Amino acid sequence: MSAIILSLALFSVLPRVSGHSAFWHPSMFGFNVTDKTFPYDNRPVAPIKNMPFSQWWFHNHLDFPPNAGDIFELPAGKPATAEIACNKGATSYFASSEGGDIRDKNNPNNVCPNSSSEAYHTKGLDDLEGCALAIAYKNDVRAVQPEDFTVFSVNQTCVWTRFTDFQVPARMPPCPEGGCICSFFWIHSPKSGGEENYMNGFKCNVTGSTSNFAVAKSKVARRCGSDPENGKTQTAPANCTYGAKTPFYWFNNERNNMFEGTFSPPVYNDRYNFLDGAQDDIFIDSYLSIPNPAPNAAMPILADVSAKNPIPTTFNTSTPDHACTSTSNANTDSDYSNSYKRDMSDVYKRGGTRSFAFMEMSKRSRRLNIHRRERLWNIW
Ligand SMILES: *[C@@H]1O[C@H](CO)[C@@H](O)[C@H](O)[C@H]1NC(C)=O
Ligand SMILES: *[C@@H]1O[C@H](CO)[C@@H](O)[C@H](O)[C@H]1NC(C)=O
Ligand SMILES: *[C@@H]1O[C@H](CO)[C@@H](O)[C@H](O)[C@H]1NC(C)=O
Ligand SMILES: *[C@@H]1O[C@H](CO)[C@@H](O)[C@H](O)[C@H]1NC(C)=O
Ligand SMILES: *[C@@H]1O[C@H](CO)[C@@H](O)[C@H](O)[C@H]1NC(C)=O
Ligand SMILES: *[C@@H]1O[C@H](CO)[C@@H](O)[C@H](O)[C@H]1NC(C)=O
């Protein structure tokens, strides 16, 4: 109780800077939108919820495009550093901010100077749920549909530092002429604020590309990690969506793809198989097979793309070929569905690790490992 009174008191004496957070860059749509531009507060940092499609899509900033030539570069195989802050004045772009420079001189990484971390919806380092960058291989923003976006990079410790690195997958193919369309997506922890989406669209371009394999058609991410706070102590790896995944569209009035409740928001981390860093398995040649996900389905088989050619698995392929027994309706239009499918339950039995399908998940992210392809759900 006294802690609440104290924090309320502190809050009232601190200058009211701002709250929430946005991705800031001159390549973004809505770069100069202030709280006066719209009849309602539609600054890029304002959260999105309970809105019709026209109002939430691209934050309703499509009429506020970046200046010609302003583009956010995505160097294939390297990190791209974004600036995420609760106010434009806390970023390198303070000069065009209504409040001027409010950067923290003592801590350039401060997301929200003179505010507690609750202003950007986290109670601390262990209460971060991650954020994502998604890409659409289209150069016309008006042609981009929600289903066109694929998440290509995740930072699970976002939003915590103003300068946030997003690893760009090494195999990102080049963008069409004029570049691609990207967007920042974030849904914060339920412990520090209500249900909200964040979306900031921007123009982007892949540089240093060395691959021409396209990004696969993205699919809705399924909930498959443990969630002890909601009574789910075990993971269900075979229930995950593998490969290219669509961002979360949640809690709006139209075109949602997620329907989770207030206290179990969809999040960009292992709980939805969004591994930390580059999403290296989003390409059309990333998998030999992706069975329809379900808690008891077969696991997918990663392709060895380093060999440029799928190499045969080390599993005993003379085992009888079981039909996929999954009843899930997802993935039926899979780009991979013509690759061979095999019930791999025998593989786990053989290895004596059948129970691995129900392991506890740690906070640390898994990694894809082509040399241990039978264990997509590696944890260390
Ligand atoms: C944003 O405002 C600054 C300062 O007025 C201006 O130089 C810049 O061109 C504007 N950018 C856009 C995209 O409107
Ligand atoms: C933030 O706090 C510092 C020290 O308390 C103060 O000097 C500074 O003016 C404040 N900045 C803003 C933007 O209010
Ligand atoms: C997330 O961003 C932080 C801050 O820039 C960085 O230290 C960290 O390495 C990034 N995580 C990944 C997986 O790139
Ligand atoms: C995108 O990057 C490629 C490779 O560096 C370059 O050739 C192309 O001109 C860039 N496109 C834009 C719109 O910047
Ligand atoms: C499997 O995924 C679905 C869709 O996200 C979810 O509703 C269900 O709870 C998940 N089941 C398990 C056991 O993880
Ligand atoms: C593969 O499985 C078949 C049938 O179960 C068995 O006869 C054969 O010896 C196995 N081969 C290898 C290399 O394990």
UniProtKB/TrEMBL annotation:
Pfam families the record matches: LPMO_AA14
GO CC annotation: extracellular region
Keywords: Copper, Disulfide bond, Glycoprotein, Metal-binding, Monooxygenase, Oxidoreductase, Secreted, Signal
Domain of life: Eukaryota
Cellular localisation: Secreted
InterPro entries the record matches: LPMO_AA14
Cofactor requirements of the protein: Cu(2+)
Signal peptide as annotated in the record: 1-19
Region Disordered, residue ranges: 316-336
Keyword Amino-acid biosynthesis tagged: no
Main location: secreted
One MF term in the entry's GO annotations: monooxygenase activity
Family of this protein: Belongs to the polysaccharide monooxygenase AA14 family.
Protein name (database record): Lytic polysaccharide monooxygenase
